[in-house]
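Email to the structure team, subject: Hydrolase model.

Hi all, the expression group asked for a predicted structure before they design truncation constructs. Nothing fancy, just the tokens so they can compare against earlier work. One-line instruction: predict Hydrolase, return tokens.
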Amino acid sequence: MKITVLGCGGSGGVPMVGGLHGEGIWGDCDPNEPRNVRTRSSIVIEGEDGRRLLVDSGPDLRTQLLRERLAHIHAVLYTHEHSDHIAGLDELRAINRVIDAPLPLYATQTVINELEARFAYAFRPWTGPSFYRPVLETHPVETYDAISPAGLNIRIFEQRHGRIPSLGLRCGKFGYSTDVEFLSDASLAILDGVECWMVDCFQYGPHVAHAWLDQVLEWRERLRPARVILTHMGPEMDYTTLRETLPEGVEPAFDGMTIIID
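Reply from the structure team: attached below.
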């Protein structure tokens, strides 16, 4: 199994738009370190048969897929309905054209309802033969379901993301938890024994909707994965500083990072 990090930034990316002369807001991130350039958080999971699952489609999706030379996507899973995770849905039209078929979409019914409200045209019945709009086939999921998008064996679990729930997932030895600040015992139990866990870590100090470093390290003590990879990082989280100060077995993600899981 191969995981590609399309993006590992927060909702505003790094750098955020702004700055005295429009050069961007870098915070504590060194602008000369290319791994500090972070687009919005998303990953692709590729199984042994070559089929791929896209997890979230943020506003940077087109650039991300071109950068990683990923054209064939066989299913998409949405973790929650915030714009930095769904705003690139229109770009899925290009995927429809590449695979010449509607794209299966997995999400909770709440998220599907929000997607249908914002992108109603993408959910109309498709009569073919061309794709002048994205065409998605919905597969509603329940918290803690076992599902098989793109032929992958996925177990989903509930997370708390401030005022709303989000979905985490486990696929074999790999776990993914973007946009989370609380995990129940039931959800942590699904992650028990995971070897590589990619997890939200927006900043060093507490946050109302995202995990922070001490929270991640506390979860790590309970789960004891061999490898923890931080994602959804804000402008406080400089790549080089993190590499130099994090405990062994904990590291920051970067856009374009790939992980191979046996």
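The chain has a mean pLDDT of 97. Residues 2-260 form a domain with the Metallo-beta-lactamase; Chain A fold (CATH 3.60.15.10). Ping us if the truncation boundaries need rechecking.
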